[in-house]
Amino acid sequence: MSADSVWAERAASLYDHAYAKRYRAHDEEFQTSAPCREFANWLSGVCAMCTPPIDVLDLGCGTGRYFWALTGVKSLVGLDASAAMLDEAHHPYNAGRIAAPSVSLIQGDLLTHRFEAARFDLVYSVGVLAEHVPFDDTLVARVVEWLKPGGRFAFTTVHPASPSIPQTLGRRIGEWIEPVMLGPARRNLRRRLLTGGLYADEERVRELLDPRFAIESLERFVSEAHLHCLCVARKVSA
Q1: pLDDT digit string (tens) for 172-219?
Q2: Cβ–Cβ contacts within 10 Å for residue 3, how many?
Q3: Is residue 87 part of a domain?
Q4: Which among 104, 158, 174, 199 is least buried, having the fewest CB atoms inside 10 angstroms?
Q5: 84-93 residues labelled b (16+ CB within 10 A) or e (exposed)
Q6: Which has the closest alpha carbon to 154: 209, 90, 227, 233?
Q7: How many CB atoms lie within 10 A of CB 18?
């Protein structure tokens, strides 16, 4: 098994049929969740930044919770490692409001699955990158390849300052000394604090996206589970 496929195997194991049923049931409580509503409004705003009709890829689509929030969509592809979650995505929340005339669901590993180059106008991911899979240069390079010139990448990451992250003594000491460190020592400490890409702060997002993307917005957002970075970036044409 490749190092990349380990993440897909973990996700598929975690999101089994029982979990997927519970997750899909939570979708029906959407209107009671202010963060979910804000994520949906954010995605609608991102779509409005694009010239319709657009081709969209949802990385780690799960149950398709946000499919309905997309506007101006010609085709929508949902990619997820969990067959159980994709089973639920066949009848997603607010299905009657999904605007895309074409929706394709694919079971696959977002770190190894292949799409043709320059296929999508928008690639988005909510609650997956720097959470269930590492947010790193390999992933960013794949998104660059899949996007059309000027296409957008919209995503969330878990911020390393999130209160959901266990505050071990080692982490507290590392966070205390990191601002005064320099050079390779600081880079090595940051890699440890970011847990190999499973968390990402504003500095790390900028490092990974520059110069291939122009960041259009980068802000912090508090959900029911985490403190996130919320980013929209436009692919810079070669």
Answers
A1: 887 888 888 888 888 888 888 889 899 999 999 999 999 999 999 999
A2: 8
A3: yes
A4: 104
A5: bbbbbbeebb
A6: 233
A7: 9
